[in-house]
Structures are given as C-alpha cells and as structure tokens.
Amino acid sequence: MATTASITYSMMCLCACVGSGQQSVTGVESADDANSYWQIRGKPTRPCQRGSAIKCGQPIRITHMKTSRNLHTHRFSSPLSNNQEVSAFGENGEGDDLDVWTVQCDGIYWDRDEPVRFKHVGTDVFLGITGEQYGHPIRGQREVHGMSTPNQHNLWRTMEGVFIQPSQDPLRHDEL
After folding, report:
1. Which residues does residue 103 pair with via DSSP β-bridges, in sequence order?
2. Does any domain span residue 139?
C-alpha cells in the first residue's frame, strides 16, 4: 500500500527547520495547493530529455516548482521522528550532489500509476512520511524525512501533474 500523502502533495513551508536551518519539506493531503508541485529533472551531468520515460534506477533531482529548490537530505536528524532530515536546497534548480535520488520501481520504467520509492544517492535513505505532525506555525503538516529501510511509509504515487510526451521526429519530405 502506498503512503497516503504523495510527493505531488508535499508542501514547502516557509520556515527554517531545526538541524540544518534549510527550508523544511512537509506533507499535506490537500491537492489544491500551489506549493504541491514538483518537477523531475536529471542530474546536472546527465539531464533528462524532455518527455523521455524515466528508468527504474535512474538518478534524478526533484525540484519544487514554486521555489526552484531541490529535494535534499544530509546527515541531520529530522526534528519530529529523529529520522534523517529532508529539506529544500539550492537556488534556481541548482544545488549540490545531495540533491540526487534514484527511482526505485518494478519494471524498466517508472509508471505513473504504480508505487515508487526514491532512494537518496549520498546517504542511502528512502524518502518517507509517517504520522508525525508539526505544531505552530505549520499545524497539521506531516514531517517528510529519510528512512533507512524500505517500507510502506516510503512508497509514493504520482497523483496528478503535467506529463509530457516525447517529441516526435519532424516530418520529412522525401519527394525531392
């Protein structure tokens, strides 16, 4: 069973969290929030071609659409669960090597209708969410964190978004 919150439902709060002091990433169940959209991008040295399918095992960056910061983790403890802190880092989609995750899924490609895990390349944790909720000023938002083992709390589903089809070759004129 996939987690009840989705990466597309994850919300960036505008407060600094304890630990790293970077922008925290929280999970909400409301899908109608402009803060809930993320873009999947390739590594800086290996960008994704627009519209191409993402392979299981492929390294990616997950960039918040509104702030252009990357989903990031490092060896700081998360404030509520004491797992590994997950934050938003970088400017204009550029961060560092701790922004890279691999897509963990069954099959050859990430199917948007199937559950998926994101495993952090630098620290080997899985992007997860459990029941821990923040109080003031972000009451009710759930902590997103890195978990050391795969389980039902780190399965994600793509719920909505813009899915770009691969470019088609331009039409050719062979009559000449």
Report:
1. 118
2. yes
Beta-strand runs (E) in the chain: 10-16, 23-27, 38-41, 59-64, 70-77, 84-89, 100-104, 117-120, 126-133, 142-147
161 assigned to some structural domain = no
Residue 1: inside a domain: no
Structure tokens at 97: 């090597």
**By the 8 A CB rule, do 56 and 108 touch?**
yes
Q: Which domain range does residue 75 map to?
A: 7-154
pLDDT in tens, 133-148: 887 777 778 899 999 9
Residue 34 token pair? 């402009």
DSSP 30: -
CA 125 from chain centre, in angstroms, equals 13
Q: How many domains does the chain have?
A: 1
